[in-house]
Amino acid sequence: xxxxxxxxxxxxxxxxxxxxxxxxxxxxxxxxxxxxxxxxxxxxxxxxxxxxxxxxxxxxxxxxxxxxxxxxxxxxxxxxxxxxxxxxxxxxxxxxxxxxxxxxxxxxxxxxxxxxxxxxxxxxxxxxxxxxxxxxxxxxxxxxxxxxxxxxxxxxxxxxxxxxxxxxxxxxxxxxxxxxxxxxxxxxxxxxxxxxxxxxxxxxxxxxxxxxxxxxxxxxxxxxxxxxxxxxxxxxxxxxxxxxxxxxxxxxxxxxxxxxxxxxxxxxxxxxxxxxxxxxxxxxxxxxxxxxxxxxxxxxxxxxxxxxxxxxxxxxxxxxxxxxxxxxxxxxxxxxxxxxxxxxxxxxxxxxxxxxxxxxxxxxxxxxxxx
Length: 371
Ligand code: ADE
Hints:
Distance between the termini: 68 Å
Bound molecules: adenine
Largest sheet: 5 strands, mixed
Mean pLDDT: 93
Number of domains: 2
Number of strands: 8
Order of helices and strands: HHHHHHHHHHHHHEEEEEHEEEHH
Shape: elongated
CATH topology of the largest domain: Endonuclease III, domain 1
């Protein structure tokens, strides 16, 4: 498999040295990928826009979870211009359940800049891609290699794991130094004639063979003959990963304030966690029934009946919410909800308002019979 020469490779002018011990690696990865790859929507029909959207969705999210979102998103926003003009509420509703909502907001900002600065065509050069909102080194590499066929590396967590094992890297893959080293290693191997299949091949190896948190399936691995971890018998203990900081525990109380079939929702502030999304009113701390009723009155409602709900838990990257919930029936309000609040009918609430999955257990409680 041809490795692009340094002289005419403007994308890779600082291409790292090539280790001849791995001369066969890209050929093995590419041919294995072509035979064994999963048929995924963004692979069956490839365009820079489809690659960009899928790669943003796939950050921190499993392939199986992304598939239905990807198809729905592409039907709603089939191209960069439609995304640049997207209605924010509709965009957030379509992203509901995928999590990490700033990805959606950045994707729209990115589409806007592509329209304003690049005439609606997603750029192909790494510096131009990196200049766009929400595009980091991995996504830039993925768009350039998978959609434009540029000979560049796209190194995500999967690729770090695979290459840490292939090279028997003893350092912490989360450290910038090791990440840089493995990125350089991957870049040195990108084949000129199949950069996309090589990049996705490494990801696919990580997903199907060189598994995370489980012993790799070395017996069926196409690169087992080159793998240094396997030769040294340390494939089960690599990659080395520094300890992640523990999640901060945050106790909250969530109130489902209902009048007839209408329920109170609040729009979260424009910055920070779950920015701009809709939520049930919620408060720091685990409230007693009396405290919950006081909070309902403080919002200007007249409680009739209260029912405790099943506690719920939600894990964010750095925080764990432990939620106490109450369903509180209130008298028909004689004035509209306070600023920043709405009180939609259940159907409307479910179809129009983007409510993050942190509140899923309480959304389910809404459709349960009234007390
Ligand atoms: N994870 C990140 N990018 C991916 C891709 N293109 N295919 C499958 N899984 C991925």
